[in-house]
Amino acid sequence: MENEKGLLLVLSGPSGVGKGTVCSALRNRESNIVYSVSATTRAPRAGEVDGVNYFFKSREKFQQMIAQDQLLEWAEYVNNYYGTPREYVESQIEQGNDVILEIEVQGAMQVKEKFPHGVFIFLSPPSMEELKNRIVGRGTETDDSITNRMTVATEEIDMMEHYDYVVVNDEVELACDRIQAIVLAEHCKKERKIKQYRKLLKEVK
Ligand code: 5GP
């Protein structure tokens, strides 16, 4: 049977909800999911590696990437630019690998326009209190950045209705189980299979 294309998975959710942790846990599991590394103008946090966590860029370089249409989507978030390099995502999907983008909601809505068949997953915190504890507990943000991120977080949670699935991140391993269940179900969708079977039936007749 003809090779299936990979799924485009988009994971959003407020800052501090644990998207990064859930994504790395997913990457450690035996799965067909590859992770798209974003470009950003934000400074690296301690322990972050260029090319692994992000491609760290100057504002000029980032603007050049936008001008050359190298980004599938991009957004400004808390005074920095973030964007998804296009080529890697498109080639992986073509090769049949599922690609996960961990991006904020404005970028996700741009992807939705270009890839209406993408799978949009919203990772939500068990509560707002827990969300604030996680951002503060991370110890990487200034007071201003914490306030900004909490304001943006409430706006982001409002965008949940534009997603296909909501996964609560109460425990990382459980959140990963739920995402893997979604991926499995999406692969079984009749829309993804029906064309192949029609072709198969034609060959038999
Ligand atoms: P952080 O600074 O905490 O790493 O990321 C801030 C926000 O930017 C997070 O919500 C993260 O998901 C989002 N983000 C990371 N990469 C991208 C990207 O390529 N595009 C968009 N639109 N958002 C991104």
Architecture overview:
A hairpin with a 2-residue loop joins strand 5 and strand 6. The longest helix has 16 residues, at 172-187. This protein starts with 7 loop residues before the first strand and ends with a helix. The chain has 8 helices and 9 strands. The protein is of the alpha/beta class and 205 residues long. The protein has a domain at 8-36 and 97-204: Rossmann fold, CATH 3.40.50.300. The relative contact order is 0.20. The chain binds guanosine-5'-monophosphate. The site of guanosine-5'-monophosphate has 14 residues, from strand 5 and strand 6.
CATH fold annotation of the domain at 8-36 and 97-204: Rossmann fold
Summed up, the helix count is: 8
Rounded to the nearest angstrom, the radius of gyration is: 18 Å
List the ligand species.
Answer: guanosine-5'-monophosphate
Query: Reading side by side through the largest sheet, how are the strands ordered?
Result: 2-7-1-8-9
Give the proportion of residues in helices.
40-55%
- Assign the CATH class of the domain at 8-36 and 97-204: Alpha Beta
Q: What is the correct CATH architecture of the domain at 8-36 and 97-204?
A: 3-Layer(aba) Sandwich
